[in-house]
Specification:
By secondary structure, the protein is α/β, with parallel strands linked by helices. 29% of the residues lie in helices and 20% in strands.
């Protein structure tokens, strides 16, 4: 089992099923900002006290009948029960299904409407140093999912000294080869304790956005502090959710 919590937003009618664990080994993972992380590979945030059985998840989702169901984590595709729950959400609930964020290692999936993929870096050496995994399968999976008609979004974390401006722009240029209209989000790195990288400046973020807009039509950015990242509901009402399981 991997899913351990379900939240619901009654205004926007979406539910989010949260998982624990990941297939990447990213030393700068923002989940490490949360206290209590056990530090084991693939487990950057605290281990849940318990995991939810499939029937518990089904019951919770039935109780609110969401229009959209998001799966996120961690990396939601580590959950063996994900294909069953995607089918349940599409077939019984008639909901649209999304991976709220994913590293893209298991795309595409049946009964999935869309995904927001974190494309970590363009250069193979940087990608390996960042994640412990090769780059090409991730980009191939994104392209396959996009061409299959899934609603695809992408994001990158801009980490000066690791994922530099050339890396960020190269990812944007590659996406533009698929479509200039793919939504792309540039996130400013939030310093993780014990790591040598600094948060980008406002000027650096502006330059990252400018470079990406040379290639893509829909480019957004976020530049959060550590404290802001730990309380997203204070900035965005989409995070003002109710826990239902």
């Amino acid at each position: 089992m991997a899913f351990h919590r379900i939240t619901y937003h009654p205004t926007y009618r979406f539910a989010t099923v949260h998982n624990y664990g990941c297939t990447f080994r990213c030393p700068i993972c923002s989940y490490k900002l949360r206290s209590g992380a056990d530090g084991r590979p693939g487990h950057a945030h605290p281990r849940p006290e318990r995991f939810l059985a499939v029937e518990e998840i089904r019951a919770a989702l039935r109780s609110v009948a969401p229009e959209k169901v998001y799966f996120m984590g961690g990396e939601p595709t580590v959950a063996a029960e994900l294909p069953e729950l995607l089918a349940f959400a599409r077939d019984e609930l008639k909901a649209r299904t999304y991976l709220g964020h994913t590293n893209g290692s298991k795309l595409p999936l049946a009964n999935l409407n869309g995904a927001n993929v974190g494309l970590k870096a363009w250069d193979e050496a940087v990608h390996l140093a960042y994640t412990g995994r090769p780059r090409q399968p991730i980009f191939d999976n994104f392209a396959t999912a996009f061409r299959a008609g899934l609603e695809m979004k992408a994001n990158v974390v801009y980490v000066p000294g690791l994922v530099d401006l050339d890396q960020v722009e190269a990812v944007a240029a590659w996406l533009a080869e698929l479509s200039r209209n793919i939504p792309f989000h540039v996130m400013g790195y939030i310093p993780v304790p014990g790591q040598p990288y600094a948060r980008p400046s406002g000027e650096q973020m502006d330059e990252a956005v400018r470079l990406c807009r040379k290639h893509l039509t829909h480019v957004a950015a976020s530049h959060l502090t550590s404290q802001e990242a730990l309380d997203l509901s204070a900035r965005d009402d989409r995070f003002q959710v109710q826990r239902i399981a």
